[in-house]
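Q: Joint fold for the lines below.
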Amino acid sequence: MSNRSPRLRLRHLAAAVALATTAATTTACAGGDANAGSDDQTVIKLVDPGNAGLLAYAKKTGVLDEKLEAADARVEWGGSYGSFTATIDAVRSGDVTLLEGAISPAIGYLSTSNDLKIFAVADRTTDPKAPVGDGLVVPKDSSVTSVDQLVGKKVAVNKGGRGEYLLGLALDKAGIGHDEVEKVYLNPVQAAGAFQSGKVDAWWAIVRGYPTAVAAGAKTIVTNNDVEDNDLTILAARQELVDENPEALKIVTDTLAELQKEATADPAKFQNVFTDSGPTATSGDALERDIEVERYSLPFPPVEDKDLEKIQVVADYFLAHQFISKAVKSSDAAVQLGS
Amino acid sequence: MSAPTTTRTTPSATTGRAAARLTAVSKAYGDTRVLDAIDLTIAPGEFVAVLGPSGTGKTTLLRLLNGFEKPDAGEILVPPRVTTVYQEPRLVPAHRVLRNVLLGQRRTKGNKSAALAALTEVGLERHARSWPATLSGGEAQRVALARALVRDPQLLLLDEPFAALDALTRLRMHDLLDRLRERHRPAILLVTHDIDEAIRLADRIVMLRSGSVAIDVRIDVEHPRTITDPRVVDLRERLLGELGIDPNPTKENP
Amino acid sequence: MTAALDATPRTDRADAGEPADADRTAVTLARPRFLGSRKRSRTLSVTLRFAVPIALLTVWQVASSAGWLDPQILSSPGSVVQAAEELWESGQLTDFLAASGRRAAIGVTLGVAVGLVLGILSGISALGEDLIDPTMQMYRAVPFLALVPLLLSWFGVGEGFKIVLIAVSAVAPMYAYTYLGVRGVDRKVVEAARGYGLSGARLVAQVILPSALPNILMALRICLSVSLTGLIAAEQIGTTTGIGYLVSLSQQYFRNDYMVLCIVLYAVIGVLIDLGIRVVERLAMPWRSGVAAR
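A: Joint structure:
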């Protein structure tokens, strides 16, 4: 019996290996099939636009596909990503080829990869009636009233991103060294919790974090408008998309510019685009504010020379403060469509 | 159910001096009445063997005395120090032999030397630092015996302690138990299937049947007892008869 | 021998309560201290099981209504229930649970199959152990979340990636427990079975697997719990459905009520997994009921 066993055991092993391989191939195929389409048409892969904004509205109406037909291109709406890092992974793997964002994360990405190109940059909203985008907040009972009182205090920022960049600018302006405050690196969700429970003394709240904090009673010390922020909203695409069909990208910027006009006139219809319920739906004050933000937002014109300068300013600042370890040249980071 | 005739042969039982006393103890599992109003008194220093077919409540009796079960009715009284040797050694595999003997006691110098002395008594002083897994069945059971005796029990419960041993080892264990008993004189309650073992060791044999005491008999035969002793032969036949077994089957087989 | 024993002072014994001489003559008898396991009524047991969660809920509710809890830090039970209703009415709750359930089911099945086969091979044969165990021990030490970037580049962001991630997370616990379970099967029983002509797959199916079943079910329990972590990680990426996506959404939108709802959902799923495995245990291992020492 004992000399029969080894053969049997090997057979078991072979079966196991076969099973594991089959499993891997099956699932790999399942993943591949989802992206099947016609061969020559350009496919623009976007992340899920959520429930508000130009892209959400475009997804609902199908206007992008309509316009892109002229350039033999179409859009493919993907899933949502829980974090910026996850989105970056998807860009890297080519599952997302066009995204909306800000200069700061694009610079972070471009310091390690060169397959992403900024092709449109929105102008900074300067209208004083527009709601403040983001800012440095302290709890409502805090004694801090200005940036210079933050020396030795704990300030939450998102590492190497917009929060840390804008805090840096604010500290520079107040003439305080960056190491005189204690930076606590937290992503916005973690920071919100730490801030609410008083574990940090201040927080540079970005995106949705800022209105949420203000609504909960936080006091604003400085805002992005005070620090001459060059971290503008951008559109970026993967290199191969730029090479393959620049016309399609042009159509995207044009279409979004059209939509922005509509949004300025009637911002409310760009809110709660798909649903009025669930976590993505807004209501009350938050909805009011979002409508105002949308009203005063500016379109994304294709990159111009002045944009290259702004991108370079951010990139240089990031390098100087070691948010990135490798220099990024704006001429590599951006592409001027049609040039 | 009518109580069968029992022979009360222990004077101390009536005078109130006892090492254990069960009064009208009943225990049932579901519909099965395992013990039915049992009365049993064990005198200090007395060696009682409990016999009976499987399922007659022998093990339940021990579990009741140990406190692992509660009686449905009746009263059980035991002395402060009761120890048990089970059919299996039940040594903690993760402790060395000496530590097993010390189980549940503080590891003071005095306790340790007492444990070592007990191991010496059972002839295992050389194995004090061995692991239980390295012992033979007989050796492990001797450790269990040492563990029971080192507590200086007033009542020693033996639950078929030799049943798993080979015949030769069992005989040696009988001798050892005899010697230890002579020295320590605890009251002993031995549960066994082996009639010869009961006769060889005990002062008194109690046979259970259907949850009641069927026979309760004192063995007034001096040690060492031989199986040819007519009193032993008589008792053996009586016990086997009670179990429904013909003591001399060869005579009738042609 | 005698000398050694007699030299031992009796009073040194831990439990010596009275002089040794008195022992034989006047023993005080008492009822034996009850050492058995107490049988509790089923009602009491069920009540106790519910008591702690209900107490926690009560404390939460009271603290919320009394205003001790900042809703930004912990939403009130009421608002969490409201969030659940909202999701339920829009049909998203069902969709999310179905999507996550499907991913978890396929992923766990694959992972469990691989872990089971490897664990059995490693447990029954020395060759298998030499070939598989060292690698699996290394694999086990790798947190599966560290594999996310790699898996992303191999499988993309689609369903394949999510299922593989869950499968990958399930392999290690399944392997480890199966291996232990198979190693723990009574060698003597296996010997006897071999003696009666069982070998190979029949030996595994008829003797080894049934004997290792307690471990295997324990492994399944752990795999299912781990798959929840896998789901959160997988559904942060490239999806618009699933409970992991809900977690990610509620964080992006700072919706504390939905964050808490997610936690409650996970807790409920945990209870359901436990109940499910208990039922399986009862059905698959009838010989075990009442055996386990408590």
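Q: Anything notable?
A: Chain C touches chain A through 60 residues (CB under 8 Å). Chain C has one domain: 76-283.
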